[in-house]
Write a structure and sequence with these properties.
The chain is of the alpha/beta class. The chain has a single domain, classed as P-loop containing nucleotide triphosphate hydrolases (Rossmann fold, 3-Layer(aba) Sandwich). It is built from eight helices and seven strands. Strand 5 and strand 6 form a beta hairpin. The longest helix is centred in the C-terminal third of the chain and has 24 residues. The protein binds BIS(adenosine)-5'-pentaphosphate. BIS(adenosine)-5'-pentaphosphate (AP5) binds next to helix 1, helix 2, helix 3, helix 6 and strand 6. BIS(adenosine)-5'-pentaphosphate binds next to helix 1, helix 2, helix 3, helix 6 and strand 6.
C-alpha cells in the first residue's frame, strides 16, 4: 500500500493497556495518517481547563467513562479536519455501543453532505490481552510529556532510567495508572466496551490480532491487516 493511498477509517479496539496507543503511533509513522485518541484529546481539555475538561476531569480520575454525549462534538470536529482526508486511526473511540452507532451514522451523514467523499465505514482491529498482563503494562507505563512516546519499565524501558530517549525529557506516570483506578478502568471496559466488538463483528468489520505478543510482532499483524483491507466507503461515490 502506497503512502499516498487512502487508508480509510481504522479503529483500534482493546482494553486499557492492550497497546492501542503504541500501535497507533506506529501506524501514523508508517502510513502518515493522524492518530485520534479521545483519551489524549480529553486530557488536553483537562489541562486547558475547558468546559469539557472540567466535566471530564473527576470522571477520568475515577477510571469511569465520560458520558457519550460529551464526546460527540469533540470527535466530529476532529474528523472534519483536512488531515483526515486519506484516513485516520481512532484510538479509544468508540467505547460504547452507542458511540459505535453514532460514528456510523455520523460518517453516513457526512458523505451525504459532502459529495467529495473521503469518509469510510470504520475497519476495526481488536487486540486482547490477559488481565494480569494489562495490570503489569499499565503500572509500568511511563510517557514522555513532550513527544508523547510511550515506554514501559518492564517491557520497553528507556536507555536512561526515567528519561526520554528522543528528547531527554523526564518521563511521567499517567494520573489514572494507579492500581485502584486501573481496576475500575478494566471493569468499565468489560461492562461498556465489550459490546462494541460484538457490534462490529455482526457488521463483518472486525479483525483480531494477538495483543499478548511483543510490540513488534503485534505491529507486523496490524500492518498485515491494514494491507489486506480495502477501505469501505459509505455510499457509492
Ligand atoms: P485512554 O487514554 O483511551 O486510555 P485507555 O483506553 O485506558 O488505554 P490506554 O491508553 O491506557 O492503553 P493503550 O491500549 O493505549 O496502551 P499503551 O499502548 O499505552 O482513556 C483514558 C480515559 O479517558 C478513560 O478511562 C475515560 O475516562 C476517558 N475516555 C477516553 N475515551 C473515551 C470514550 N470514547 N468514551 C468515554 N470516555 C473516554 O500500552 C500500555 C503499556 O504497555 C505501555 O507502557 C507500553 O509500552 C506497553 N506495551 C504496549 N504494547 C505492548 C506489548 N505488545 N508488549 C509489552 N508491552 C506493551
Amino acid at each position: 500500500m502506497e503512502a499516498s493511498q487512502s487508508i480509510g477509517s481504522i479503529v483500534l479496539l482493546g482494553p486499557p493497556g492492550a497497546g492501542k496507543g503504541t500501535q497507533a503511533k506506529r501506524i501514523t509513522e508508517r502510513y502518515a495518517i493522524p492518530q485520534i485518541s479521545t483519551g489524549d484529546l480529553l486530557r488536553e481539555n483537562v489541562r486547558n481547563g475547558t468546559a469539557l475538561g472540567l466535566k471530564a476531569k473527576d470522571i477520568m480520575a475515577r477510571g469511569e467513562l465520560v458520558p457519550d454525549e460529551l464526546l460527540y462534538d469533540m470527535v466530529a470536529e476532529r474528523l472534519r479536519r483536512p488531515d483526515c482526508e486519506r484516513g485516520y486511526i481512532l484510538d479509544g473511540f468508540p467505547r460504547t455501543a452507542a458511540q459505535a452507532g453514532w460514528l456510523d451514522a455520523f460518517l453516513e451523514r457526512e458523505i451525504l453532505d459532502n459529495p467529495k467523499c473521503g469518509k469510510w465505514l470504520p475497519f476495526v482491529i481488536s487486540m486482547d490481552v490477559d488481565y494480569n498482563v494489562l495490570l503489569l503494562r499499565l503500572t509500568g507505563r511511563r510517557t514522555c510529556p513532550t513527544c508523547e512516546r510511550i515506554y514501559n519499565v518492564h517491557y520497553q524501558p528507556p536507555r536512561v532510567d526515567g528519561i526520554c530517549d528522543v528528547d531527554g525529557a523526564k518521563l511521567v506516570t499517567r494520573n489514572d495508572d494507579r492500581e485502584e483506578v486501573i481496576r475500575e478502568r478494566l471493569q468499565a471496559y468489560e461492562r461498556q466496551t465489550r459490546p462494541v466488538a460484538e457490534y462490529y463483528q455482526q457488521k463483518g468489520r472486525l479483525v483480531s490480532v494477538d495483543g499478548m505478543l511483543n510490540a513488534d510482532q503485534v505491529t507486523e499483524q496490524v500492518f498485515r491487516e491494514i494491507r489486506n483491507h480495502s477501505p469501505a466507503k459509505v455510499g457509492g461515490c
